[in-house]
Predict the 3D structure of the following.
Amino acid sequence: MFLKHGPLNQYLNEYFNNINVRYLSRKELFIFIKKCVQQFKIQKSQITFYPRQPRVILYEKLREKMAVLKNDDVYLLCDLVEKSDNKDAIFDSLGLDKPKKTRIKKQKKLKAKKITVNKFLKDHFSTIKLK
């Protein structure tokens, strides 16, 4: 956080770089940081800001495959993949496409027409009327 301010960075490394920082409450930690900022006269331009990047499945997969690249380079590569024409082929090659589940809808049951025995016999068999 204070990479551009050498004296404060050295002070933190000497006196505060141990496991005891985990035992401080949040309030005590913020009070300590506030006193450091006041004592060492930290300016806004001396604080580095790292924007939080959302976790993306594509990023994680590319990070595994290409461990040599830096995080920013992997994000640039993700942007290129997202904008490319053959995005689907790249996703398939990385194994990122999940098969879409097709929902099986219950078909409506056909209502069976009630047929009398007499009508059924006349439709399917040749019958002769007897006197």
Q: What stands out?
A: The mean pLDDT is 79. The longest helix spans residues 26-40.
